[in-house]
């Protein structure tokens, strides 16, 4: 039964065009390892240099969002910094209709969904020149309140997702929602 279930899972992923799938706790080391595997796969597929760079940039930003913001986390005993946290998420990279798809999903606090959706809608509404302008403006204005980075992650994803991106939220309960973002290169 075990082999059959796992084979059916594998077949499901292949039927969906998934080249790589990871579900679990993510760290910078895992990010690096997965990134190397994806780059090698792109070389084997002879993807253009621009496609490879764009896909890799989107992948890194998406995984860093999980590492920094997933609400599903564990802190190592005696930890006093972010480097001692493990955050859980799901990542997949695949091909769909001639384009690459990078999807990342993780739990977020339900109270953050409105703010996040407003930001993502705004970013989706911008053309390339406006995205570049917003990117530069955001970098100059410093780290946003509550951010663990420069605040340009979703802007950078939009800049490199040459075929756009979609997102969705599913409320789990009063405290948590499930957030998914798919970016197309």
TrEMBL record:
Pfam families: DUF6272. NCBIfam families: SiaB_fam_kinase. This is Uncharacterized protein. The lineage of its organism: Bacteria, Pseudomonadati, Pseudomonadota, Alphaproteobacteria, Rhodospirillales.
